[in-house]
Amino acid sequence: MRLxxxxxxxxxxxxxxALDKAFETKPLKEIVNAPxxxxxxxxxxxAELLAKAFGIKSIRDLGTNKFFLMAQxxxxxxxxxEYGRSDCFSATFLQRDMRFLREIDxxxxxxxxxxxxxxxxxxxxxxxxxxxxxVVNNTGVEINELYVSPSRVDDWEEDLLNxxxxxxxxxxxxxxxxxxxxxxWDLKVVDHQGNSITWDDLNLLEISELTLNFKNxxxxxxxx
Length: 224
Fold this sequence. Notes:
Layout: E1 3-8, H1 28-31, H2 44-54, H3 59-64, H4 66-78, H5 91-96, H6 98-110, H7 112-126, E2 133-138, E3 145-150, E4 171-176, E5 184-190, E6 196-203, E7 209-215, E8 218-223
Parallel strand pairs: 2-7
Antiparallel strand pairs: 1-4, 2-4, 3-5, 5-6, 7-8
Helix pairs in contact: 4-6
C-alpha cells in the first residue's frame, strides 16, 4: 500500500511526499543528515553532481547552501524590483552593497522553517494522488484508531492515527503516493473500548470527502 501521509487539522504537515519511500517514517533529525538523493526526484547521479559542484552531501547541506539561499533571495526580490527608484532592490544596488547580501543571507537562514512550510503546502497539490480524501468524524465519539487498506489486501497494516485520537467534529486528510493505482479501499475505525466499524469497497477515485456517522447503534457514511 502506498499510503504515505495524513494531516489532522490540528497537526503539522507530513513531509513524506517529498521523500523517497525508505525515509518516509524516519524522524526529521535523521532525515536532515540523510543524503540528498533521499529527496523524491533527486537521483544518485544528481547527488554526485551536487557534491562535486558545491560540496553538498546531505539535505542539511542543500538547505543551508549559501548559493541556493542567495538564488532564492534574488528570485523573491526580482518580483519586488521597481525601476527608476534609488531605494529599490535592483541588481546594481545588490552589487554596490555587499552588506545587504549578507543581511539577505542571514534572513533566509532565519526563515528556513517558513520556507519549508510553504514548500510542504505547495507539494500537497503537486504530488496529490487521485485517491486522496478527507475523513470527517461525525460519529459523536472519539475515534482512537483508523485504518485504510486496499480491498484486495487482507491486512490493515498501521494505525494512521498513531496514538492521536480523531475527536468528534474533526477531520483528517489522507494522502496517497502519486503512483498508487488501487481504486477500491476498505476503512476501519476503532473507539477507546475496542468497538470497530468497517466500510468496504470504497471507490476513492470517486470520493474526495467521507463523513462517518453513528446514531442509535447504526453506522453509515456520506460520500462526496
